[in-house]
Specification:
Length: about 850
């Protein structure tokens, strides 16, 4: 801190202190009275001042000890008082002059602005390891009351506020209690064991640095008093002591300008200058400007200049070292980023080459088959594959650029007609152009999915879904067939069957193709019911039968309604009536169709009753009443159609058999059970979604504890579905879905999902969850349906329900409505969705 900075700090404190001497100069007629009253007050408060001096000294001790503790290391600042009283301190001329010059320059800067420093005492300064002196900004120093001195000497003579003992400004300290002093006795006791106890030194420092006129109560807060304190400081810099008694005796003699003989012999010039500053008459002492211009401080000493230059050089070296350290750390971090980027570029380049090789093989194998309608196999072979690749690259860029620039379908068709290429090539380029904008729109998320999939692929040795994909392509079940299905078969044969492709490419390519296969959700049919005006139309659950010919709905209207799919999809009717309708005594929360016995439907309701219904007879076959509270979920096992499970607000999962009257097992959890589902291929594995934010997977052969726990949601897990035998999807009211990989080993808590899907809104309601062929459907509290694919975290498609007034037919925006239930129709691209107003739609991905 230089002199100007210190002066500005002192000036600010003096203006804040509001010293009466500076604000109200005394007149000459009242001068004697003022002095008399001040002396009287001083005498009356002598006893009080002694007690307050002790407390102030304790404050000073605490501050300096704290500074000493923090500066225990060699590189920290240290109090000047502690530095002066270090045992065995050697006096270095250049070092002492350097310290004194800094303090004198600071005082001179303050005097130049009309400010009396008052606190020119060692305890108010700290030193850096390079002997740079700084003023301590603390209450202990500021309480002595630095004041602004008026330009006239009369103001000084009138008794302007001076340094004084700290009790004069008690309010600056805050409360000083005996309790606080007692708390420090241990620390003070440790100080007294040192050669120079700080407590005693600080108690005496007030008197040592008080000028004679201040001790007599004649002049306070004068420039001359600051000069006197500089003289005492100069004496302490050049005089060392071996014991406390010697120091106390010598400092007492200094009040009478008696200097020790060893100082006079060793440092005669310094002793002479010190006596000049300590002159008892204020008018005889030099001004601070004279001190700074004196030959004593300006003697031609090359060593001093060298010392100052060396100190500055050392400081500059330290700054350069810090900068160098920062730059080295920065370089190291950026190098790590560059290494990772270089590695990424290397394996991306390898992947590009591999995909290009596979593409060449696909072009050779697929073109004859795809061109049977317009080109012969012979004409295809007339053009080398390399020529096709090279010629199509520039055109692909052209088509993509035109598409991104907003070229319409008609103009795009015109460009296609002008391009001299085969029909197959044109179809490929048009398909790429139509999907390019969707790909680039989500480029960042696709990039993250690519790296994530590749990392997983590098760790895995086989794809668990390859068997299922082969089964699907063989023709069993309901497979989704798109325009690129025949190409997919070739990909499966060449990539997976041939084994020439890295493990990561297949799942990523499959996800990317499915992500780009569909562009929107189209309304295929609306279910028109006759009770649209009924306010109790919230649909809580829907499900398809074994053959996907019928579907059933249930909700707060206490009815299970069964509809025929073909009648809804293929016949245009004003009102659709259910083929079967069954009434319940309570609101229904969930239904599940038996996957083997086509006529059986299980239901759960708000009173905790689980029932099995015979659809053909429209009646209940069995009632199970063991739950104590509302049951949220019920599910039939696909592997064992006689086994049934239910879970509810009583925190239990009940296991049932349709051949037995009571439950065959009970799982007790710590929180409400919101959803359950059997593993599709096993009757012994069950997933449970709980209100404690977790998913529990149980092996029903051991009901005491879950075989694994999936913990990653931050709110209630409202729904859980098996995507396949080794993956589970969970929905939560934290606005997210999570995909989990079930570990092969049992037990343990897993907190790292494979994927987190976000885009929909779900804070408080059950919005439904359904999975099919890697696609995940869910509702939203924005009255929308969202479709995700397991490979990517962002939505693939979405559809917003329009709120239409049943009387006027006008659309309006009702923020209270939400999609309450979704259900895929087997493994097809058709989805059944319902919202809170009872509006049910068949949606199809196109």
């Amino acid at each position: 801190m230089d002199g100007s900075e210190e002066a500005s700090g002192w000036a600010a404190r003096s203006s804040a202190s509001g010293a009466p001497g500076a604000a109200y100069p005394a007149s000459s007629s009242s001068l004697g009275l003022v002095r008399h009253r001040r002396r009287t007050l001083v005498r009356e408060e002598d006893e009080f001042e002694e007690e307050e001096e002790v407390e102030a000294a304790q404050e000073q001790v605490s501050r300096i000890l704290s500074s000493a503790d923090k500066g225990g290391g060699g590189d920290a600042d240290v109090s000047l008082r502690e530095w002066l009283d270090r045992p065995g301190r050697a006096v270095d001329l250049l070092e002492c002059l350097h310290i004194f010059r800094q303090i004198a320059e600071a005082v001179g800067s303050a005097h130049g602005q009309g400010v009396v420093v008052a606190n020119v005492r060692p305890s108010c300064f700290v030193m850096s390891p390079l002997n740079s002196v700084s003023f301590i900004e603390s209450a202990s120093c500021s309480t002595s009351g630095s004041v602004s001195a008026s330009s006239s000497d009369d103001d000084d003579a009138a008794g302007g506020s001076g340094p004084g003992p700290p009790e004069r400004n008690r309010s600056f300290y805050g409360p000083s209690s005996s309790t606080r002093l007692k708390d420090r006795r241990e620390e003070d006791g440790a100080d007294e064991k040192k050669t120079f106890p700080l407590k005693r030194i600080l108690l005496m420092e007030w008197s040592w640095y008080t000028s004679p006129e201040e001790a007599d109560g004649v002049g306070r807060g004068t420039f001359a008093a600051d000069v006197y304190r500089l003289g005492v400081l100069l004496f302490e810099l050049f005089c060392t002591f071996d014991s406390l008694e010697e120091k106390l005796t010598t400092m007492a003699d200094l009040r009478h300008r008696v200097l020790p003989p060893q100082l006079l012999l060793k440092w005669p010039k310094e002793a002479s200058f010190c006596l000049w500053l300590l002159h008892p008459q204020p008018d005889t002492r030099p001004k601070i400007s004279e001190v700074l211009r004196s030959e004593f401080l300006n003697r031609p000493t090359s060593k001093l200049e060298e010392r100052v230059a060396a100190i500055k050089l050392t400081e500059e070296i330290e700054d350069e070292e810090l900068l160098l350290e920062f730059l080295l750390h920065l370089k190291q971090r950026k190098q790590e980023v560059a290494d990772r980027l270089r590695d990424s570029i290397c394996f991306i380049s390898a992947d590009v080459q591999e995909v290009q090789d596979q593409r060449s093989i696909l072009l050779q194998n697929s073109y004859p088959e795809l061109d049977r309608g317009g080109r012969s196999a012979t004409s295809t072979l007339d053009h080398p594959v390399a020529d096709v690749d090279s010629s199509s690259f520039a055109s692909r860029k052209r088509f993509r650029s035109e598409f991104n620039n907003g070229v319409g379908e008609e103009e795009l068709g015109h460009l296609m007609a002008e391009a001299p290429r085969s029909g197959t090539e044109l179809q490929i380029q048009v398909s790429i152009a139509s999907k390019s904008s969707r790909l680039m729109k989500n480029f960042k998320k696709l990039e993250a999915a690519y790296f994530s999939t590749r990392r997983r692929g590098s760790r895995s040795t086989r794809r668990p879904e390859s068997k299922q994909l082969q089964g699907t392509s063989s023709g069993t079940g309901s497979a989704v067939r798109t325009e690129r299905s025949s190409v997919d078969d070739v990909v499966l044969q060449e990539g997976r069957g041939g084994g020439r492709r890295n493990e990561w490419i297949n799942p990523f390519l499959e996800g990317l193709c499915k992500y780009l296969s569909f562009s929107r959700l189209k309304v295929k049919a609306d279910l028109k019911q006759g009770d649209l005006l009924n306010s109790m139309n919230l649909v809580c659950s829907m499900d398809f039968d074994r053959d996907n010919e019928f579907f059933a709905t249930a909700g707060v209207n206490k009815k299970i309604k069964v509809f025929e799919c073909d009648m809804i999809l293929n016949e245009d009717r004003g009102i659709h009536y259910p083929v079967v309708e069954m009434s319940n005594r309570s609101k229904l929360s969930c239904i599940c169709w038996n996957g083997y016995i086509k006529s059986q439907i299980a239901s759960s309701d708000f009173e905790g009753v689980v029932q099995v219904w015979d659809v053909t007879r429209s009646q209940s076959l069995a009632e199970m009443r063991e739950h104590e509270k509302r049951v949220w979920s019920v599910d039939f096992s696909l592997a064992d159609p006689t086994r049934l499970a239910s879970g509810g607000d009583d925190g239990t999962v009940k296991l049932w058999s349709i051949n037995k009257a009571g439950s065959v097992g009970t799982i007790r959890t710590k929180a409400n059970v919101c959803s359950i589902q059997f593993q599709p291929e096993s009757a012994h594995l069950l997933a449970v979604g709980s209100a404690d934010h977790k998913v529990y997977c149980f092996d029903l052969r051991n009901l005491r504890m879950p075989c694994c726990t999936l913990a990653g949601h931050t709110k209630t897990v409202s729904d859980v579905k098996y995507l396949d035998s080794s993956h589970v999807v969970s929905a939560s009211t934290d606005n997210s879905l999570k995909l989990w990989n079930l570990p092969a080993s049992t037990s343990g808590v897993h907190e790292a999902p494979l994927q987190t899907f976000a885009g929909h809104t779900n804070n408080k309601n059950f919005v439904g969850l359904s999975v099919s062929d890697g696609y995940i459907a869910t509702g939203s509290e924005t009255n929308e349906v969202f479709i995700y694919h397991k490979a990517f975290p962002m939505p693939v498609l979405s559809y917003k329900f329009s709120t239409t007034d049943p009387i006027s037919g006008q659309e309006n925006d009702d923020a209270s409505q939400f999609v309450s239930c979704v259900c895929w129709r087997g493994q097809s691209s058709t989805l059944l969705a319902a919202n809170s107003s009872g509006n049910i739609k068949f949606l199809e991905m196109v």
